[in-house]
Amino acid sequence: MYSGETIVILDYGSQYTQLIARRIRELNVYTEIFPWDVSPERLEALEISGFILSGGPNSVYDVQAPKLPEFVLTSDAPVLGICYGMHLLAHFLGGEVSLGTTHEYGSAELDVLATDEGGLFAGLSSPLAVWMSHGDFVKTLPGGFIALAQSHNGILAAMGDPGRKIYGLQFHPEVAHTLQGQEILHHFLFDICNCQGNWRPAIFIDQAVAQIRSQVGAQGVVCGLSGGVDSAVTAALVHRAIGDQLTCIFVDTGLLRQDEGAQVEATFHQALGVRLISVDASEQFMSALAGVTDPEAKRRIIGEQFIRVFEEQAAALSGINFLAQGTIYPDVIESAGSSTSHRIKSHHNVGGLPEQMSLDLVEPLRDLFKDEVRAVGEALGLPSELVWRHPFPGPGLAVRILGDITPERVATLQAADVIFLDELRQAGLYNQVAQAFAVLLPVRTVGVMGDARTYAEVIVLRAVTTDDFMTADWAHLPYAVLARASNRIVNTVPGVNRVAYDISSKPPATIEWE
Ligand code: XMP
Fold first, then answer.
1. Do 139 and 100 meet the contact criterion of CB atoms below 8 Å apart?
2. Which of 181, 262, 313, 360 has the highest CB neighbour count under 10 A?
3. What is the model's pTM?
4. Cβ(510) – ligand 1 distance below 6 Å
């Protein structure tokens, strides 16, 4: 846990809660999300500079409506209620909330009524373009509050009690459609909460190193490396803290990108001097997956095989009591997610093994977002090719080979994938897309090569842009780049006679094909 100025976000179920946290961290202020009914004891160790109450789907009049905890008002820290958060403040402080007929969002324009120095809207001029919630709204202000902004159809859009430093917004400052939302949050953090904005990777690293040392003492830690950013940064951080007490295990599943094993070896063992065990388990994985085509069955089998390999390796090492995992904040938030949300895919992490191995977890990145993890990786001196690599799923190429997985089909996909990524790099586009890869389909199609008929495999290229991987758009890559990749793949990868480009966004598709 970070010790330093912290904004506490109380989550009332808004789809944007995580976005509020991101926006605040972007302003170099540390923040954490807690459920609205968190016990005050859990917050005791924090240096709280302010509270933000998120929006949420409820109405304050619902029988089971989530409440405003007493500690929010008895603490001296400033409070910003967003949407439902604003309604709660009004309701509990003696104002009146009117029931809306819908619960929708939409763009709206506001008239700003108060632009005083030191206030939320200081220096902003009307009209203000915002992402407005058209649900319940505050009809009567609570005592001590003034109206700060009003929508063109007369709805109260913002209220504040500058004396008590309590504010409410009917709209969402955290979403991009609220054009000056970041300025409003900036005013709240720096002018109202008096934050200093000291949250930086270097500070994080010092604190994390101290925490890892005190957690682990003189005992041993294992860490699974997957070739991805999160496990790499975890390993580098734990290594900085405890040196040779860390042993990394890299499992070659036979389902990795081309040359992945050599790269992990070169970075961790040769460059950073990390103690590394590389296990070639490709035959074991291949034979367990033989004939399996169902996506969820593939994931389950891969998870089990990882456990086997880890168990064997851990049994051979002595004095190991901890497992370091690259869990990051979105993983924590998503796994704590709503009980009503559907399981789309069982995401499998290399490290999902603690119960079977009875090891305690070391998860130094669990409070960080991906971009912060990358900043920490760079500050730790990891090579930028590694830090800026696209994410790669735990089950590896297994979820990109539709149908049967065989060593031959893995080789086909690896060869096509490497060509696509090479073309993106040459065009300077690799870092402009969030993730790009090739997929091998379970069908064959007819083609002609030279004068001969072919009946061969199809490769699909997929490239997406996204900030958070929860939603994504297909990347509008230049035709010339797609044309070069397609030519090279068809001409040099044996057994492939056709290449297609995936133009689906998420939703309704997902990023991976399985
Ligand atoms: P989807 O396909 O769900 O993917 O849109 C979102 C992001 O998650 C990655 N992904 C996984 N990562 N284990 C992982 O560690 C998995 O089982 C898994 N499945 C998908 C995917 O590559 C994308 O970045």
1. no
2. 181
3. 0.78
4. yes
Domains and CATH numbers, the chain: 5-192 (3.40.50.880), 201-387 (3.40.50.620), 400-501 (3.30.300.10)
Q: Assess whether the previous peptide bond of 395 is cis (omega < 30° from 0).
A: no
DSSP 31: E
Residue type, 149: A
| CA dist list (Å): 44 to 4, 38, 200, 248, 343 | 13, 11, 23, 36, 34
How much is the pLDDT for 281?
96
Residues 330-366 pLDDT 10s? 777 766 544 333 445 555 454 344 455 678 899 999 9
Q: Residue 395 CA: which ligand 1 atom is closest? A: 17
387-428 confidence digits (pLDDT tens): 999 999 989 999 999 999 999 999 999 999 999 999 999 999
DSSP labels for 462-485?
EEEE-SSSSSBEE----HHHHHHH
CB distance 224 to ligand 1 below 6 Å: no
Residue 197 to residues 29, 126, 169, 180, Cα–Cα distance (Å): 5, 28, 23, 19
pLDDT recorded at residue 153: 84
Q: Note the pLDDT of residue 307.
A: 84
Ligand 1, atom 4: closest residue by C-alpha: 511
Q: Closest by alpha carbon to 128, among 171, 85, 188?
A: 171
Contact 394, 298 (CB under 8 A): no
Per residue in 285-304, pLDDT (tens digit) is: 999 999 999 999 999 999 89
- Which of the residues 5, 32, 83, 223 is marked catalytic? 83
495: number of Cβ within 10 Å: 15
How far apart are alpha carbons 152 and 183 in whole angstroms?
21
Q: Among 174, 260, 423, 514, which one carries the catalytic annotation?
A: 174
Local confidence band at 271 (pLDDT 50, 70, 90 cut-offs):
confident
Burial class (CB in 10 A: 0-12, 13-18, 19+), 154: exposed
* Token duo for residue 216: 């682990």
Q: Calculate the dihedral angle through the C-alpha atoms of 175, 179, 182, 183, rounding to the nearest 10 degrees.
A: -150
Q: Is 223 a catalytic residue?
A: no
**Is residue 108 a contact partner of residue 143, using CB atoms and an 8 Å limit?**
no
Q: Which amino acid is at 37?
A: D
Distance CA 444, CA 497 (A): 9
